[in-house]
Specification:
single chain; alpha+beta; 4 domains; about 10% strand; rod-shaped
Length: about 220
């Protein structure tokens, strides 16, 4: 059991306080904890209370760190967890932080899927989008459900515009149409378009009846 003998406002951050126990610096906390934990001069603190304060302080820091991360760019639940682990927080603080973020809709994987697809479908195929979302920790079934809502004609139109631009670059330095078609195919597949769609838009762009054998 120890006694709080001093509580000093920090010089560089007026919202934080240095706590001294028995005239020795013990820890620093935010102003909210000073109030909620009733920290005051001559107040007594035991090991259990110190542990409770340390947990709440770390949780508060973890939440603030998470909010700063989200301010920079929207994240999935898995991405937030990974970022917080990188920052040195333990699961005891990370898990309630994630619950807090979800409760107040700071993170929402279902909404993230919709926004990600809407942004990427303008320049990528559904397969590339799918695997990118899987790497971000999104449930594959949720991804599939959202990808089925993609306008296939819109996806095809985007692929057609991409391949036309690529074709205009290739045709200036390559005369073999089969080499061109093969490069266009690899280009589209690399962008996440499936085999059938890739063949269709290449045939349309190059006015070819058959492009079998490309790989």
């Amino acid at each position: 059991m120890g006694k709080i003998t001093r509580i000093d406002v920090q010089k560089r951050n007026k919202e934080r306080f240095n706590i001294y126990i028995d005239e020795v610096y013990a820890f620093s906390v935010n102003g909210e904890l000073v109030y909620t934990e009733k920290l005051e001069v001559n107040g007594e603190v035991d090991e259990e209370k110190l542990h409770k304060i340390a947990f709440k302080e770390n949780l508060s820091k973890c939440k603030n760190t998470a909010l700063r991360i989200i301010e920079r760019s929207y994240k999935t639940e898995m991405e937030i967890k990974e970022k917080l682990i990188e920052k040195g927080y333990d699961l005891e603080s990370i898990l309630p932080t994630v619950d807090f973020l979800k409760e107040y809709s700071f993170i929402d994987d279902k909404e993230y899927i919709k926004l990600y697809i809407k942004d990427r479908i303008r320049r990528q195929g559904s397969q590339k989008i799918k695997y990118a979302l899987i790497r971000k920790g999104i449930d594959p079934n949720e991804i599939e459900d959202n990808l089925t809502n993609i306008n296939k004609e819109q996806e095809k139109d985007v692929a057609l515009e991409l391949v036309k631009k690529k074709y205009s670059q290739l045709v200036n330095r390559e005369k073999d149409i089969y080499k061109i078609s093969s490069k266009l195919y690899r280009f589209l597949v690399g962008r996440g378009y499936d085999y059938t769609l890739a063949k269709d838009v290449i045939k349309k762009t190059m006015n070819m009846d058959d492009i079998e054998g490309i790989d």
